[in-house]
Amino acid sequence: MAEVLVYVDHVDGAVRKPTLELLTLARRIGEPVAVALGNGAADTAAALAEHGAVKVLTHDASEYAEYLVVPKVDALQAAVEAVSPAAVLVPSSAEGKEIAARLALRIGSGIITDAVDLEAGEEGPVATQSVFAASFTTKSRVSKGTPVITVKPNSAAVEAAPAAGAVEALSVSFSEKATGTKITGRTARESTGRPELTEAAIVVSGGRGVNGAENFSIIEALADSLGAAVGASRAAVDAGWYPHTNQVGQTGKSVSPQLYIANGISGAIQHRAGMQTSKTIVAVNKDPEAPIFDLVDYGVVGDLFDVVPQLTEEIKTRKG
Amino acid sequence: MSLRIVVTVKYVPDATGDRHFADDLTVDRDDVDGLLSELDEYAVEQALQIAEDADDAEVTVLTVGPEDAKDALRKALSMGADKAIHVEDDDLHGTDAIGTSLVLAKAIEKAGFDLVVSGMASTDGTMGVVPALLAERLGVPQVTLLSEVSVEDGTVKGRRDGDAASEQLEASLPAVVSVTDQSGEARYPSFKGIMAAKKKPVESWDLSDLDIDADEVGLDNAWTAVDAATERPARTAGTIVKDEGEGGKQLAEFLASQKFI
Ligand SMILES: Cc1cc2nc3c(=O)[nH]c(=O)nc-3n(C[C@H](O)[C@H](O)[C@H](O)COP(=O)(O)OP(=O)(O)OC[C@H]3O[C@@H](n4cnc5c(N)ncnc54)[C@H](O)[C@@H]3O)c2cc1C
Ligand SMILES: Nc1ncnc2c1ncn2[C@@H]1O[C@H](COP(=O)(O)O)[C@@H](O)[C@H]1O
């Protein structure tokens, strides 16, 4: 059976959920072979094996943390040359897309980004994408070379599928260009203890209607009662009320949770672009004409300062 | 010596319009007004600021696109860019990201450059890959997705805010930079700027000017193929209630009925 390379997104050996989702998709096309790079690479093997990786190619070098993107492209290219895969799957993060693009160019292949589903097809893997702010769904293929496809989080279920997961050292020699862009400093994000925005099953967002950084505690309280991640519209981020890492939309994160709750958000096209594919959508807005109401499964026309605290209380009571 | 900055700008259908696909499954450009991608305005802005801080600099805006893409160049010129290059050729219709990066890279080399500044993503394709592809093709450092950028003594520095960390980056020129919408509001063209733009030079190049064969670009030679595009069915109208004191509780009832609580 053909092998499919899966680029592993991990933090010091802890595999992030989107990579496990990729393994589910990779198994539809062939046998997953994972590529894990950098500090803790070998520690990823157990989790990857449990979810279907037949092999885990690992390589660690200081270059991965010291220089931007290119060392990872060199390594992934080495893996492609070693394995001759039927496809290469990469998580659709900002960095993932850049790595995938440069790899595709080097190996003479086409690239598809931001797939939300993947199936085997007669002429290679068929990717589903959601375009024009999620108003259209397309089916595409790579028509030249080895398909390189980046896949968004929450595109498939994580499935247990135990496989050998044999660890093999990947041999990598870095190109002259690998050290072109130096990473001279790094400030890690502080963890909020809440779920990762793109991976969360429930997202609770606040917009301009929240009217102040201090009021975001109302949004956070609702999120915490549901075990949800917190999102924000660009208006709330631009006003300095909430960090940009939490922005949902075209120039923020795109999320596709089971439940999205928009509070004091009008529903501009650029915001919709990042949340329109959510399963169930709920909104609280005092303007009955707000476009967000065109998307909702359930909407409350009212003041969020009344509705949201009452909702949070009721959830806490029901959960006991 | 003068700092040569090339800004890549894309002409895109207005995102607030009703965007569609044409029969050949390329982006329909006829029914929706086009404009300079808002995310490329940030690139123009940062290029102008870098140029203002340099002793001697020249900002060239470059687009690959149809006839109307001149509008995007005009807008960038009226913001303050010095000159423009328009790559236009019938054979370019349907070119994908890999092909577009080839055309842009050849044009950038022909124009001559010390710094390329791109937007973070185009507002129609939203791939966010062209800057990385340009760095790969031009063989220069990639310093991308910056929310802060500066150039001094032949070195570009910037801050890249990623998911896990915020990173400080540094590279020597020549380099390719892309900037995010966090990099600072783009200026509005002034009346003077709009008048001045009318006199600024706009060069037109076609594929032969760039030594690119027609079979390297275009829809039929794309590296990817779109086989189907379907409009997402409109969401079925949901329940909307007016809060009369019980809105929060009603919402909780709905969430419970959907097993979220
Ligand atoms: C290139 C580009 C990229 C963009 N990217 C993004 C992006 O990634 N994400 C994003 O979100 N936006 C993005 N935008 C901005 C977008 O166009 C909108 O400006 C933004 O989404 C508006 O945010 P908002 O809904 O919070 O604010 P508004 O549109 O001002 O809406 C606020 C809403 O709150 C309601 N409200 C006010 N007070 C209350 C109250 N007490 N109780 C209940 N409701 C109340 C109002 O009725 C209103 O509907 C982008 C724009 C551009 C041009
Ligand atoms: N046809 C084009 N002409 C000029 N610049 C482009 C074109 N396509 C993409 N770009 C540049 O590349 C950036 C990223 O585009 P993309 O990878 O398509 O999302 C844009 O913000 C532009 O700066």
UniProtKB/TrEMBL annotation, chain A:
<dbReference type="GO" id="GO:0050660">
    <property type="term" value="F:flavin adenine dinucleotide binding"/>
</dbReference>
<keyword id="KW-0285">Flavoprotein</keyword>
<feature type="binding site">
    <location>
        <begin position="233"/>
        <end position="234"/>
    </location>
    <ligand>
        <name>FAD</name>
    </ligand>
</feature>
<keyword id="KW-0813">Transport</keyword>
<dbReference type="InterPro" id="IPR018206">
    <property type="entry name" value="ETF_asu_C_CS"/>
</dbReference>
<feature type="domain" description="Electron transfer flavoprotein alpha/beta-subunit N-terminal">
    <location>
        <begin position="4"/>
        <end position="187"/>
    </location>
</feature>
<feature type="binding site">
    <location>
        <position position="208"/>
    </location>
    <ligand>
        <name>FAD</name>
    </ligand>
</feature>
<keyword id="KW-0274">FAD</keyword>
<dbReference type="Pfam" id="PF00766">
    <property type="entry name" value="ETF_alpha"/>
</dbReference>
<dbReference type="InterPro" id="IPR014731">
    <property type="entry name" value="ETF_asu_C"/>
</dbReference>
<comment type="similarity">
    <text>Belongs to the ETF alpha-subunit/FixB family.</text>
</comment>
<dbReference type="InterPro" id="IPR001308">
    <property type="entry name" value="ETF_a/FixB"/>
</dbReference>
<comment type="subunit">
    <text>Heterodimer of an alpha and a beta subunit.</text>
</comment>
<comment type="function">
    <text>The electron transfer flavoprotein serves as a specific electron acceptor for other dehydrogenases. It transfers the electrons to the main respiratory chain via ETF-ubiquinone oxidoreductase (ETF dehydrogenase).</text>
</comment>
<dbReference type="InterPro" id="IPR029035">
    <property type="entry name" value="DHS-like_NAD/FAD-binding_dom"/>
</dbReference>
<dbReference type="InterPro" id="IPR014729">
    <property type="entry name" value="Rossmann-like_a/b/a_fold"/>
</dbReference>
<dbReference type="GO" id="GO:0009055">
    <property type="term" value="F:electron transfer activity"/>
</dbReference>
<keyword id="KW-0249">Electron transport</keyword>
<dbReference type="Pfam" id="PF01012">
    <property type="entry name" value="ETF"/>
</dbReference>
<feature type="binding site">
    <location>
        <position position="285"/>
    </location>
    <ligand>
        <name>FAD</name>
    </ligand>
</feature>
<feature type="binding site">
    <location>
        <begin position="247"/>
        <end position="251"/>
    </location>
    <ligand>
        <name>FAD</name>
    </ligand>
</feature>
<dbReference type="GO" id="GO:0033539">
    <property type="term" value="P:fatty acid beta-oxidation using acyl-CoA dehydrogenase"/>
</dbReference>
<protein>
    <submittedName>
        <fullName>Electron transfer flavoprotein subunit alpha</fullName>
    </submittedName>
</protein>
<feature type="binding site">
    <location>
        <begin position="264"/>
        <end position="271"/>
    </location>
    <ligand>
        <name>FAD</name>
    </ligand>
</feature>
<dbReference type="InterPro" id="IPR014730">
    <property type="entry name" value="ETF_a/b_N"/>
</dbReference>
